[in-house]
Design goal:
The protein is mostly helical and 204 residues long. The protein is 78% helix and 0% strand.
Length: 204
């Protein structure tokens, strides 16, 4: 698994994907930091982190769209499966590579709270908890994106499918209000959803 992790992590930096993700991520973080904490003197960096949670919906697919879809497209998935490693190790290796890149990028953004610390007192505990929550949200979305990447050979389809799934999760509360509350209607609705998901997976 370690070998696969190193290979996948290295591939992020031998292709534009890793650099595009990091540059876009750091640029947006820097803009929000400047607008919230510099132009308007505010020591609470948690506003920046909470404001950028939705950014993961569009940046995580950049990380996950090629993880397994590229293997299927290049027909190298059979080589991985027949290699002397388990499927669990393959999935974990690719998953940990994406989460490691996310962690590295988040670690770079920690320079912003450090700058604020030199200027005054900041709620460091709240900021660290916000970073932890942001990272765990990113890990959750990466796992979903990795699953969708395994369903198709096309990286663009995997990215669009991931964004669609993330948007569904974002709007889940609003969608829940539209679901019928009676037992029979809820059962019918659940069966329809299961049938649609099964059809998508079967045709992938």
């Amino acid at each position: 698994m370690t070998i696969l992790l190193n290979k996948e992590l290295k591939s992020y930096f031998t292709s534009p994907i890793g650099y595009v993700f990091m540059c876009f991520f750091l640029l947006i973080f820097g803009l929000y930091f400047t607008a919230i904490n510099v132009f308007h003197p505010n020591g609470n960096y948690t506003y920046v982190i909470s404001s950028l949670s939705n950014m993961l919906l569009f940046t995580v697919p950049i990380l996950t769209m090629r993880l397994l879809s590229e293997e299927r497209k290049n027909r190298t998935d059979q080589l991985l499966i027949t290699a002397p490693i388990t499927v669990t190790s393959i999935v974990l290796g690719k998953y940990l590579a994406a989460t490691t890149l996310l962690l590295i990028t988040l670690a770079i953004t920690f320079i912003h709270p450090i700058l604020l610390m030199t200027l005054g007192t900041i709620p460091l505990g709240s900021i660290l908890c916000s970073y932890l929550g942001f990272f765990l949200l990113g890990c959750t979305l990466i796992s979903i994106g990795l699953f969708i990447s395994a369903l198709t050979e096309n990286q663009i389809v995997a990215a669009i499918g991931s964004i669609g799934a993330f948007m569904f999760l974002l709007l889940a509360d609003g969608i829940a209000t539209l679901i019928p509350t009676s037992r029979l209607a809820s059962l019918v609705f659940l069966l329809i959803v299961i049938a649609i998901i099964s059809l998508i997976i079967y045709n992938a």
